[in-house]
Design brief:
single chain, alpha+beta, Arc Repressor Mutant, subunit A, ADP-ribosylation fold, 2 domains, 3-stranded antiparallel β-sheet
């Protein structure tokens, strides 16, 4: 994502504004994943909020006074990682929530294998306890090793990539939820289903 110069034509004038979609995406993620109450928002059980109310909340932040629905749509389309969606005049973050109330997800059958990138210092704990959601609502899993590696690099320059026997875990009662095309979620994964 990048800076975008937009030409806006209003009734009385024409203006050029610059929107940094990466910064907007971070703000939207923060509001919808971690701090809706700071914006005066109440998410429904599936994480949705009215998009017009959300825009009003964003505009109260000095930096985003000119943000419009088209900007949110462009931000979502410009993103290489699908983090948000707008449907029926509502917006939500697809995954990554740390708020207290659980965002409900629909159980879905995962692919045979999923991957999780993690710091080397966590391996001992994962072998003992499995993968736990920690400060997030769900364990985040990737459909490919490359994505898992990039996620793991956030906490370790040489992360360990774990292969999760997702299909086997699923048939043994572990719930999985699709986050987006590259991200899957689970409540927890026992070490029995993890290849170290």
């Amino acid at each position: 994502m990048q800076l975008m110069n937009l030409l806006r034509i209003t009734d009385n004038n024409t203006e050029v504004i610059t929107i940094n979609y990466q910064e907007l995406s971070k703000e939207v993620s923060y509001a919808l994943r971690h701090a809706p109450s700071e914006y005066g928002l109440i998410l429904d059980e599936n994480g949705w909020v009215d998009v017009q109310g959300f825009l009003e909340a964003l505009r109260k932040k000095n930096k985003w006074t000119l943000v419009k629905l088209d900007d949110l749509i462009c931000m979502i389309e410009a993103s290489d990682k699908k983090r948000h969606e707008i449907v029926n005049n509502k917006i939500r973050a697809l995954y990554g929530h740390s708020i207290v109330s659980q965002i409900k997800k629909e159980i879905a059958e995962p692919p045979e294998y999923l991957y999780h990138g993690t710091a080397r210092r966590f391996i001992k704990s994962i072998k003992e306890k499995g993968l736990l959601s920690q400060e997030r609502q769900y364990v985040h899993l990737s459909v490919d090793e490359e994505t898992a590696y990039e996620v793991g690099k956030r906490r370790d320059q040489k992360p360990v990539i774990l292969r999760i026997r997702a299909k086997l875990a699923f048939v043994n009662g572990v719930s999985f939820y699709k986050g987006n095309d590259k991200i899957w979620l689970s409540d927890s994964i026992k070490s029995d289903f993890i290849e170290f």
